[in-house]
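pinging the channel bc i need a second pair of eyes. not urgent but kinda urgent?? the chain im working w is below, pasted from the shared doc
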Amino acid sequence: MNLPNIISELVKTQNEFDSAAYANCFAEDAQVFDEGKTYNGKAEIEQWIDKSNTDYKATMEPVAYDEKEDILSAKIAGTFPGSPLVLKFHFTIADGKIQTLKVTE
């Protein structure tokens, strides 16, 4: 599967539970939408993923990528109800950084 470099890096940092490196995949003013909440900026994104890593220990396994829409489908496995499941990660990428990420089922 041919993923943009920044998405490959995001998957790698998630699977290593490296919250700081994960947040560095995002632009300074990026937004993440997940589970009905919005996280603004790299600091909030790092806090969100750090809590998620602590609570769920979720790993990502890419299963499909829609290049036209910048949507990654990935199998997520961890310590949460319903694990594993496939989620969709809708990206907006600019200047080599993630500007927005929306996580959906």
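so The longest helix spans residues 41-56. and The mean pLDDT is 97. — does that match what u expected or am i reading it wrong
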